[in-house]
Amino acid sequence: YTLNVEIPPADRDFVTYFLETGEGYCTYFATTLTVLLRSAGIPARYVEGFLVPQSDTASRRELRGENGHAWTEVWFDGLGWVPLDATPSSALDQMEKIAGEDPGEETVPTEVITEAPETLAPTEAIPEKDHTQATEPPQGAEAGSSFRQVLLSIAKLCFYILLFSFPVCLFILWRCLVYKQRHKPEYLQKELEESSAGELISRIDLDLQAMWKLEDKSRNYGETIREFVGRMNAKDKNKIDQIYLDLTERIYYDDPDGQIISREELEAFLDFYAGEERRLKEDLPRKRWIMKRFLWSEYHPLPR
Questions:
Q1: Which residues contact 23 (CB under 8 A, 6 or more apart)?
Q2: Alpha helix locations (H) across 70-140?
Q3: Domain boundaries in the chain?
Q4: Which range has the worst mean pLDDT, 142-146, 174-178, 189-193?
């Protein structure tokens, strides 16, 4: 915690810059926690206000700029907005000590006293009872400090959970990209331009074999493509299309580059491939499909 920080560069993300440098004041801590909570789908908001000096006798309290503070509030069903202060406790203790000091008459300039009604108007709009309730629990200062420590621990826990879950989120995002691009016509067209039709069909065949393996439909050792297709079609209601047999036999036994494969034949093969993807998602148990197909697949037509 420090007030002497450099302004983040214009081309850098504020939160990322703060996490890298680890230096800042309450505004930095509150902003970062709010952004991280929101990125995890947790309702949170950034709040600015004042640290109210604790007093048992004073009926009026003067709040100055140095009493300003920022924190985060998180929404909990049944509780409402609950404050979470990510500012280090040592810094908070020092701020509360400063807030509780009597400034003395000699430290208050005359012009500030003259303009007091205008400058204090915004703070008077906030009922002192509500603000005190948020900063002073009924059990007193000691209970309030313990409550703040609990909230701080929760905030730190949320931060570390987000920190360690970030790689997992990146992996899931990548798998979503893989799954969505797998059957996009424009993506497959680009792959076709960078390789041959025979190579693309060969790689898709590997992916089809991986899909059928999830349904216990693997090819036996030494079994030809025609024998495999005949065996599957004889016992399974979901027939393997003839276009699969025609094109795979052609590229494996006669035309490795697929030079004599027409566009209509290739489009029919890709339609069969996309149809098998949809069928597998419907027929396979949901958990098995997510773990074995969505989150991880042995083969796919993306660049190797």
A1: 2, 5
A2: 89-100, 110-114, 116-124, 128-135
A3: 14-170, 182-294
A4: 142-146
